[in-house]
Write a structure and sequence with these properties.
Structural class: alpha+beta
Order of helices and strands: EEEEEEEEEEEEEHHHH
Number of domains: 2
Radius of gyration: 20 Å
Number of helices: 4
Strand content: 25-35%
Largest sheet: 5 strands, antiparallel
Helix content: 10-25%
Distance between the termini: 29 Å
Shape: elongated
């Protein structure tokens, strides 16, 4: 496992003696990437998978050594999607050994979940796109990175008896430098699993099979029974993930771990 992938897996079976019942609701925490260097204000993305999609009880802080004293600043939190958060601070980080501290509130006190070395996390020039991603979103938000060409499936011949039959076209429209996918549907048939679909599209989307599965899930929640990632429905059209969604899944190691934790969480319900 590469340096920088720091994970906190919280199990309800009490594998960690200090973990309380409330903390068992958090399955996974890790730094996805950071968007700042030394001597600048902190900006980073953090993966969080919880039993309930509520991270309001979590606190995020950066601690650094400044003039011989430890100083700690609380980071603001903005949700990018249901598994990814953007953290931002206001005070410059000058300590190369600065740490990200993640806490969770309990009835009696705040308990530390994990302490992560900030500069061990991978650097990424991609800043967060905080446009809210809606379910089955058909038009993409602006991606802040260079435009990636995506193969787009355009739905034609609507009177056909096989609605899964589609024609591949290049239907990317450029508006003021933004990339939009027009009427984009994923090609699939009822024998396709989520893995098979993602494996087919991963190269076109410039991501891994795990990133592609997470992106499909995020863009098509209603296509999954009870919104569980392992229960893909048949006879339901799948919309292509927007470029904004795809840009958040660019780290195979992190995406794989997040997918595995989500899958285990949903299968246990």
């Amino acid at each position: 496992m590469r340096k920088g992938l720091i994970e906190a897996i919280i199990l309800a079976f009490g594998l960690l003696g200090y973990v309380t019942t409330a903390m068992a609701q958090v399955n996974h925490v890790s730094i996805n990437s950071r968007q700042f260097e030394l001597n600048s204000v902190p900006q980073m993305k953090v993966n969080v998978v919880a039993q309930i999609d509520d991270v309001s009880r979590l606190g995020f802080y950066v601690r650094q050594l400044d003039n011989g004293k430890f100083k700690q600043q609380k980071l603001s939190v903005q949700m990018i999607n249901r598994f990814l958060l953007q953290l931002d601070g206001t005070d410059i980080i000058r300590d190369k050994n600065a740490q990200l501290i993640i806490t969770q509130a309990t009835p009696s006190k705040a308990v530390i979940l994990v302490v992560v070395a900030v500069f061990d996390a991978p650097y990424s020039f991609k800043s967060a796109n905080l446009t809210a991603h809606t379910n089955n979103q058909q038009s993409s938000a602006v991606a802040e990175n260079p435009v990636k060409k995506l193969s787009v499936i355009s739905q034609k011949n609507k009177q056909t008896s096989q609605p899964s039959s589609t024609t591949v076209t290049q239907a990317i429209a450029s508006v003021d430098g933004a990339t939009q996918q027009v009427d984009c549907l994923i090609e699939r048939d009822n024998s396709d699993t989520l893995w098979r679909i993602a494996n087919r599209y991963k190269e076109q989307w410039h991501t891994s099979v795990y990133g592609a599965m997470l992106a499909i899930f995020e863009a098509n929640l209603s296509a999954f029974s009870k919104q569980r990632i392992h229960l893909l429905l048949k006879d339901v059209p799948l919309h292509c993930p927007s470029t904004a969604i795809l840009s958040e899944y660019n780290n195979k190691g992190v995406d794989r771990k997040v997918f595995e934790v989500i899958e285990a969480k949903h299968a246990a319900k």
